[in-house]
Amino acid sequence: MKIFLDTAELDEIKFACSLGIIDGVTTNPSLIKRAVEKRGGEVSMEEYIKEILRAVPGPVSLEVVGTSFEEMVDEAKRLYMRFSPYGRVVVKIPICSSMDGESNIYDGLRAIGELSRIGIPVNATLVMTPEQAILAAKAGAAYVSPFAGRIDDYIRDSSGMKRGRDYGKADYYDFRLMRLIAEKRLEETLERCEDDDVGRIYLNERVASAAKQGHDNGIYSGVDLVRRIVRIYRNYGYKTEVIAASMRNARQVREVAEAGADIVTIPFYVIKQMLLHPKTIEGMKLFVADVVPQYADLIRSKG
């Protein structure tokens, strides 16, 4: 599995790349704006993006800001022409650019198809369902980015929890526990249902409400979303690579790796989480305490 860094902080990017573990970077306009502003006008946004591209050994995703087909295609062409001489540019296009559920519904998909046709690699972003991922692959996207963390948040919120009160952004979502709770609630609801007609039980509002808990239209977590997309792509031989995005913690990274994601894109702090374990630290203390002085002198001597 490839690891991308989800940041626009150049210092983080350079350090992570120096570790030899980073294969690419994903950014967005907000991340780039904040990173440039931290430098107090010492560098222009254009030069800063070029520096990122020079520092990264693989693809760098840059995002359009338009919402119509024409705007997204034009902006993608400009981004690609301006920055591809400095590195491997991939353009992020939302799978659906509608903001009201009525207008621009198909424009993202059309833009993905048009840009892929003319040879500009596309990262189809804001993917929340396997259905969207199928369309992105059919349109020719080089990458698809299912937002695992946001799906976890959506399911928790739909179950009555609230971010900031009941869970933090980086908290692991135990979807297995949630599924057990939801199944238990459905079982108890069915037991309280006194009707013996299957059709009426099926249509019972309380039963229907209980059956909808703990998932988003049959998707039980962000990891489950990634797993199902990977399975569909392998079923039909789609070439689109799956980028597990919106990662919040190290356990999520492990689980999307087990699910078969081609790539995971992570914030810098998750690298630290992936490295640390109490028993590793304890072991280091024991190793250092057990060092034989003569052995240490031997391996440290220049002769």
Structure description:
The chain is α/β, with parallel strands linked by helices and 303 residues long. The protein has one domain: Aldolase class I (TIM Barrel, Alpha-Beta Barrel). Helix content is 53%, strand content 13%. It is built from 15 helices and 8 strands. Strands 1-2-3-4-5-6-7-8 form an 8-stranded parallel β-barrel, surrounded by 6 helices. Helix 4 packs parallel to helix 5 and helix 11 runs parallel beside helix 12. The protein is flat. The mean pLDDT is 96.
Secondary structure topology:
Elements: E1 2-6, H1 10-18, E2 24-26, H2 29-37, H3 45-55, E3 59-63, H4 69-83, E4 88-94, H5 107-117, E5 122-127, H6 130-139, E6 143-146, H7 148-158, H8 175-192, H9 198-203, H10 205-211, H11 222-236, E7 241-244, H12 250-259, E8 263-266, H13 268-275, H14 278-289, H15 293-300
Parallel strand pairs: 1-2, 1-8, 2-3, 3-4, 4-5, 5-6, 6-7, 7-8
